[in-house]
Specification:
Helix content is 78%, strand content 0%. The chain contains ten helices and no strands.
Amino acid sequence: MAVLLDTLMLVAAFVAAGAFAGVLSGVLRTGGGAALAPLILAFLDGGAALAPVAAGTALLAIALLSGRAALARRRAGDLDRALLLRWGPFAALGGGLGGWGASVMAPATLALVIGVAACVAGLLGALLDPRARAAAPPLGAAGMGAALALGAASAVGANGGGAFAAPALRMLGLGAREAAGAAAGLGVLIAASATLAFALAPPAPLALSVGAVNPAGAGAAALAAAFAAPYGARAATEGPGAALRVGAAVVVAALGLATLRLGVDGWSA
């Protein structure tokens, strides 16, 4: 009975984290995934020691959600296949390398990195000029390097791809819908390759985990996020969208600060 109760509480924590992240994602449109790992850490309430499984599980959930978003963007005609073909392999490579680097970090260090990434994602969402620049995504070696860097940074920060890739693509000239579509496609590749690295890490102290990934938790979080996201999107559409987006970005940054504190506490323990 105690085992069943513990399992139900574990699933409830992932559902709560996914629902909260889903609302934020709906309001922000892209980048809400940066809140998922901090939220999982907060709801599991296990301190920085659980940072690896929070990151690995969040990345698997983000891979599932990004796949769903990419399919929807493809149906709407917002998925730039040429860009994905150019950038995708290098983004996936960066995701794998970043995931491996994150999986071998000390848990307290990883919590610090996740916290910094969430703070940066929140600041980008709140402060970045949303207007597209008169430019285009770079080609050749510059494009390869940009995709590799985005993949690595997104994987290390356990945020998939939308938090960093969508703002970067907007700054490079893509429209909002095209940038969101490309970020979703890249997010699948980045998060999936990073998840594989975490799955090969030492086992997490949570039931039903594969390495530092909890598939059941990722599925629960992804389902909850998919259910909750439309409510956030509706609120942003029907209410004061700009103010709500800034508010959601501030919440993401605040979650990052809380995760930073967990990392500091983990190092001082």
